[in-house]
Automatic annotation (TrEMBL):
PANTHER family: MITOCHONDRIAL IMPORT INNER MEMBRANE TRANSLOCASE SUBUNIT TIM9B. Belongs to the small Tim family. This is Mitochondrial import inner membrane translocase subunit. It comes from Ameca splendens. Its main location: mitochondrion. Mitochondrial intermembrane chaperone that participates in the import and insertion of some multi-pass transmembrane proteins into the mitochondrial inner membrane. Also required for the transfer of beta-barrel precursors from the TOM complex to the sorting and assembly machinery (SAM complex) of the outer membrane. Acts as a chaperone-like protein that protects the hydrophobic precursors from aggregation and guide them through the mitochondrial intermembrane space. Gene3D superfamilies: Mitochondrial import inner membrane translocase subunit tim13 like domains (1.10.287.810). The twin CX3C motif contains 4 conserved Cys residues that form 2 disulfide bonds in the mitochondrial intermembrane space. Keywords: Chaperone, Disulfide bond, Membrane, Metal-binding, Mitochondrion, Mitochondrion inner membrane, Protein transport, Translocation, Transport, Zinc. It is found in: Mitochondrion inner membrane. It is a peripheral membrane protein. The gene is TIMM9.
């Protein structure tokens, strides 16, 4: 079954992505960049930024997995309550 995504849905998703991207960028920048006396990014600032982003990505992935697990459990519970599971075919 094909799912149609409207242009307004695409725009909404893109705006949400940009908002998240901007928030992560700002948070990692504020936490990691401390020296404004040079144009160069120092190695510790670079490694801090990379660690910050990796931590965010891992956290997001873990939350997604837990969210999916929760919904699967809820759907199974609803199906069991309705008598749809556990019946022989």
């Amino acid at each position: 079954m094909a799912v149609q995504v409207t242009e307004s849905d695409q725009i909404k998703q893109f705006k949400e992505f940009l908002g998240t991207y901007n928030k992560v960028t700002e948070n990692c920048f504020m936490d990691c960049v401390k020296d404004f006396t040079t144009r160069d990014v120092k190695p510790d600032e670079s490694s801090c930024s990379e660690s910050c982003l990796q931590k965010y990505l891992k956290m997001t992935q873990r939350i997604s997995m837990r969210f999916q697990e929760y919904h699967i459990q809820q759907n199974e519970a609803l199906a069991a309550k309705a008598g749809l599971l556990g019946q022989p075919r």
